[in-house]
């Protein structure tokens, strides 16, 4: 596994890869898997999923994870976890800085996140390399928008939309909690986060460890959680979430109808962002759509506890659609 910050849309963006690094030659890479994260878009949450998926694909497809400005050769598992714009600050030694939110709001909204992913793909994935594009949560909505771009569309092998927040987010149980409770109390949460960042590092780690113990979250995610708990990152995560509530309303039926052959949906049964009725209504409207309902009670935020089971599921999806692995794996 390799990770570093690269410049996308003039913003430092955290990239994690298993297999070929993004700046290495892809002349012999026929397929690559790229993961667009949910919100917050911190690739560090996806390291175990990335490694497990790479293993599932026999290390033949590069897997890349691309962070949000928010925050895959032969089929080399190239899991590109693409983080979101502004969702993670580069190392202090970096000469580049992520702009502040105030006065730069247009850099961190949903449209900018989509442009960010398109520029990443056009910059690092050659036209001959086919993409298995994975979108988790709001990353699934971004995948649908990316399909409008002809340059990227012709490189897509298949899209896998996991726990997809692609409609009526504000009407979901979690959407109600976010808009009616979390947002009104944001100033309080912001004050607590500011206090947390003034504590000695060892005390911050101890407090996070206590929470992780109660929540049954693996300790290897503590470092990523501490990066998330910074005011400059949190404000961009909340800003993007507000934009999601405002923008992700009606199902984009035109995109789905036009690209149904490229889409694979995977819905949860315990998902506060995507109720089961969204799955049943999608199936009723599009009877032939390729959509599965989870039977393992995997959480919406699967990267916290269910990375390996989810990597097996997604890996099998990719194998079924790969021109290389699909022909050599039973």
TrEMBL record:
Transmembrane stretches, start-end: 177-196, 202-222
EC number: 3.1.1.13
Gene Ontology MF annotations: sterol ester esterase activity
UniProt keyword Disulfide bond present: no
CC annotations in GO: endoplasmic reticulum; lipid droplet
Subcellular location, principal: endoplasmic reticulum
Keywords for the protein's UniProt record, in alphabetical order: Endoplasmic reticulum, Hydrolase, Lipid droplet, Membrane, Transmembrane, Transmembrane helix
GO BP annotation list: lipid droplet organization; lipid storage
Compartments it resides in: Endoplasmic reticulum; Lipid droplet
Pfam name, any one: LIDHydrolase
Catalysis performed (reactions): a cholesterol ester + H2O = cholesterol + a fatty acid + H(+)
Protein family (similarity comment): Belongs to the AB hydrolase superfamily. LDAH family.
Protein name: Lipid droplet-associated hydrolase
Organism of derivation: Glossina pallidipes (Tsetse fly)
């Amino acid at each position: 596994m390799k990770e570093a910050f690269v410049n996308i849309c003039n913003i430092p963006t955290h990239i994690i890869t298993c297999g070929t690094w993004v700046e290495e030659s892809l002349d012999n890479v026929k397929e690559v898997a790229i993961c667009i994260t949910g919100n917050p878009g911190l690739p560090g949450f996806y390291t175990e999923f990335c490694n497990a998926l790479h293993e599932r694909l026999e290390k033949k497809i590069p897997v890349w994870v691309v962070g949000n400005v928010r925050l895959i050769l032969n089929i080399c598992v190239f899991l590109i976890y693409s983080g979101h714009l502004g969702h993670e600050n580069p190392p202090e030694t970096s000469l580049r800085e992520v702009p502040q939110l105030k006065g730069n709001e247009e850099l961190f909204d949903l449209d900018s996140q989509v442009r960010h992913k398109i520029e990443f793909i056009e910059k690092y994935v050659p036209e001959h390399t086919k993409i298995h594009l994975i979108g988790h949560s709001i990353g699934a909505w971004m995948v649908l928008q990316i399909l409008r771009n002809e340059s990227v569309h012709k490189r897509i092998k298949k899209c896998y939309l996991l726990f997809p927040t692609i409609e009526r987010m504000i009407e979901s149980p979690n959407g109600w909690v976010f808009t009616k409770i979390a947002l009104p109390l944001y100033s309080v949460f912001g004050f607590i986060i500011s206090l947390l960042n003034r504590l000695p590092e060892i005390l911050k780690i101890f407090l996070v460890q206590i929470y992780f113990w109660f929540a049954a979250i693996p300790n290897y995610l503590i470092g990523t959680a501490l990066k998330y708990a910074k005011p400059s990152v949190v404000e961009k995560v909340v800003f993007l979430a507000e934009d999601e509530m405002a923008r992700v309303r009606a199902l984009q039926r035109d995109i789905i109808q036009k690209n149904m052959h490229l889409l694979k949906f995977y819905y949860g049964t315990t998902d506060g962002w995507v109720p089961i009725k969204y799955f049943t209504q999608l199936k009723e409207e599009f009877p032939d759509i390729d959509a599965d309902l989870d039977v393992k009670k995997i959480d919406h935020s699967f990267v916290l506890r269910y990375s390996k089971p989810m990597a097996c599921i997604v890996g099998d999806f990719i194998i079924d659609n790969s021109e290389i692995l699909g022909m050599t794996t039973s």
